[in-house]
Amino acid sequence: MHVHRHWDRSKGGEKMVAKSGSRCCCCCWFLGIIVVIAVVLAVVFTIRHRANHSDDIAPGSTDKKYADALKIAMQFFNIQKSGKLENNKIPWRGDSGLKDGSEASLDLSKGLYDAGDHMKFGFPMAFTATLLSWSILEYGDHMDSLDQLDPAKDSLKWTTDFLINAHPSPNVLYIQVGDPETDHKCWDRPETMSRKRTLTKIDADTPGTEVAAETAAAMAAASLVFKESDTKYSGTLLKHAKQLFDFADNNRASYSVNIPEVQSYYNSTGYGDELLWAASWLYHATEDKTYLDFVSKNGEEFGNFGSPTWFSWDNKLPGTHVLLSRLTFFKKGLSGSKGLQGYKETAEAVMCGLIPDSPTATSSRTDGGLIWVAEWNALQHPVSSAFLATLYSDYMLTSGVDKLSCGDTSFKPSDLRKFARSQADYMLGKNPETMSYLVGYGDKYPEFVHHRGASIPGDANTGCKDGFKWLNSDEPNPNVAYGALVGGPFLNETFIDARNNSMQNEPSTYNSALVVGLLSSLVTRSSSVESFK
Ligand SMILES: *[C@@H]1O[C@H](CO)[C@@H](O)[C@H](O)[C@H]1NC(C)=O
Ligand SMILES: *[C@@H]1O[C@H](CO)[C@@H](O)[C@H](O)[C@H]1NC(C)=O
Ligand SMILES: *[C@@H]1O[C@H](CO)[C@@H](O)[C@H](O)[C@H]1NC(C)=O
């Protein structure tokens, strides 16, 4: 069947509506004057507003479309939860994977199932946690205004609880629960699976720099999220992050080389990006200069300076370029730092590639304007690119930088945001198929999502094999996998809503983390990125 998740080897508003009083109080002349003044003010404000933020929403207001979509997107993490569920709100989900880890006397019951199957893959799961942390750090206040901050932190902690337990000693990290070959021979609900849950680990004899470093990045970023609300937990995460970074750095080797079986699923094309990404997060979490020195010294070797690439579960470089630019934007002492220059310049090159009118605009787009790089999980790249673009736009706005130069043309923060919105809008239905690729959003979304739990009725007690009748059924999924972002369209913008079409119709948890980041940035007008401490 499916599983080619590894094919992205591409390193390579609404306008302001004036709300004047609608009550008619005819004979009160002064009220009339107030109304006139209000209208004049509203018009002036609207004009100024349009001039500054051509098609952005009003300050302080929320864009309902993105707010609705964010609330839906957030639900997919709950659908993917393994373990003994708490406050479960998904009627067709229950406890599962309770004995995961028992083979090594560890509790690996928590964490998130990766996609439509029941695998827990540490590499993308850690990336999911890093992204979700980043989104919370930058846009937690936006999430909070929609009551989505606590759910986001809850889903993050569900993941980092797993990662902590998966790291029982400094140089041992469990990176996989379940054997994909065995797992993919079954089509069942996670609640009823009874097969052996094989564990895979890295250690000093069989190291894996990418996965150790990505897990370090996740824990360092999450330590910042919990810094104030749960100091002890934050300290625990940071301790693990530091140990894992040392493990990754002192035992440099690719996990895909040492454990070739992982190549069929999440094959890594190199670990330099994860080392830089992890060190960047550790610097943000600790302000320990050692980590800054690391990124300065290793940038030339691993940073791919000057060449824009695509941000994905395999390639953390564009994320690193943007994250380190944050320092040059906001930390006065570091703005001229030579070691950070290459990162900043490359972040600019990435941004210039994304803006459609830029002289260096990428040609990797569909006719409808969607960034399109790979046919497997096509939406990963537009969504990750749009997320980075809104971040960069907000960094510019907050630090008072109003110009991005691309060749001989210059652009404004609003140009980046406009690009980001175009990708989000496409994803939400503004496309030739008029299909929302975010399941549960809008009138038309995929109904045959490649997702075992969603495809089998909650009361069906299937075993491993007899569940395949649900994969092959002509009926739409009995359960809606709210918040699943499916793979997405072909380059020609067509899409086949079939359950066996895992290339286009399988969601993943890291896609949801990207979508949550993008939508939480777009729900309200770009602003100072306040919640990042
Ligand atoms: C995994 O990635 C490595 C490095 O890019 C590559 O040489 C190898 O062929 C890939 N394996 C598969 C199965 O695609
Ligand atoms: C669109 O592209 C897909 C994948 O390349 C192809 O199978 C399909 O036939 C194309 N559809 C049209 C209408 O061109
Ligand atoms: C899915 O099933 C349909 C109908 O049986 C078949 O035509 C198609 O080739 C299958 N697609 C894949 C990707 O297996």
UniProtKB/TrEMBL annotation:
It comes from Brassica napus. The lineage of its organism: Eukaryota, Viridiplantae, Streptophyta, Embryophyta, Tracheophyta. It catalyses: Endohydrolysis of (1->4)-beta-D-glucosidic linkages in cellulose, lichenin and cereal beta-D-glucans. InterPro entries: 6-hairpin_glycosidase_sf, 6hp_glycosidase-like_sf, Glyco_hydro_9, Glyco_hydro_9_His_AS. Belongs to the glycosyl hydrolase 9 (cellulase E) family. GO terms for molecular function: cellulase activity. One of its GO terms (biological process) is cellulose catabolic process. Residues 66-519 form the Glycoside hydrolase family domain. Gene3D superfamilies: 1.50.10.10. The keyword Transmembrane helix applies. The active site is at 450. This is Endoglucanase. Pfam families: Glyco_hydro_9. Signal peptide: none annotated. It is an enzyme of class 3 (hydrolase). Keywords: Carbohydrate metabolism, Cell wall biogenesis/degradation, Cellulose degradation, Glycosidase, Hydrolase, Membrane, Polysaccharide degradation, Transmembrane, Transmembrane helix. It comes from the Eukaryota. Its EC number is 3.2.1.4. The chain crosses the membrane at residues 21-45.
